[in-house]
Design brief:
Strand content: 25-35%
CATH class of the largest domain: Mainly Beta
Number of domains: 2
CATH architecture of the largest domain: Sandwich
CATH topology of the largest domain: Jelly Rolls
Largest sheet: 6 strands, mixed
Distance between the termini: 71 Å
Structural class: mainly beta
Order of helices and strands: HEEEEEEEEEEEEEEEEEEE
Number of strands: 19
Radius of gyration: 22 Å
Shape: globular
Amino acid sequence: MSWKPHVALALCAGCLSWTAHAQLRVVNGGFESHLALPNATGQLHFCADWSGGLVTSQTLDYYHNDGTGAGDLPQTPLAKVAPHGGNAVAGLVAFSDEMSPRHEYLTGKFSQPLQPGQRYSMSFALTSGRVHDWVDAGMGISGLGVAMGFGAPVQEEHEKLDLHAQFEIHEALVDPVWRNYTFVFQADEAYTHFTFGLLGKTPRIREDDVEGRTLAYYFVDDFFIEPTEMQISSSHRPIRGSSAPEPEEALFVPNAFTPDLNQVNDRWMPSLPEGCRAWITVTTRWGNVVWRGEFIGEEAQDQGWDGLDMEGKFCPEGAYAWSIRMEGPDGKSQHNGLLHLIR
């Protein structure tokens, strides 16, 4: 009769193993699994478990280090880009000028439905890549975001979709290097899918010095999700005397910038929620203040720290501490973190 406990232990171990394998994840979040390697643009259908809208699924792009023709990396038809991780990325036209409006949306799925009432931390990487001088891409827009749902949205032609965003980027983004975004949300339904694309009402447009930029094109990689008890993605501490607020929508703090006077990523500036006032301070690791400012919401996006200290001298490359004190419709809050100045 001594075999019975052993059988029970084996069954229990099997249950634990099965539970571990059933953990929530974004299916093929790094775009590594594929049905075939891409050899041209418009081949997202070669990538497993990803899709676009009813029309755009055949125009979204899939790139791979082992691809050929226009489907390989790092040299794509629109920009030079290496994967954020692994060997593959996806690409989409989030916006084109009003002469020929075009909006593409990328839809991924979760390994299991979300639990209503549970908080989740979700992250992804985003870049414009090093855009070629001779192409139409290189425009930046605000309003990129993520919306939860139950499948790929229905889209006629290339119309802009009216979806409720759980996360939205207020900055008009053009960046040749990868940016990592993390946000926290509470599921109100058992969502099975999510969609990335232009979700803001009226996007702000940013164009660089090169004429003829008519496309806001982006590469994405490494989508990830996990349950969390976090209130916000950055360090958060309620100011004494106030109740703990809910997370400010779309507060994003860059973790690095390159003030080398090339007009790309030359200033460090958090993306602030609309209607919020913020007092921002940057110090050295020893607590010496090198920059501070007071800003209001989206008006701050073209401002920020240019890498000079309070005396107008160049700050050396390295790590710096930032703190943000905010006041807004949801109350007061304090945020702290680190950033890297790269020369």
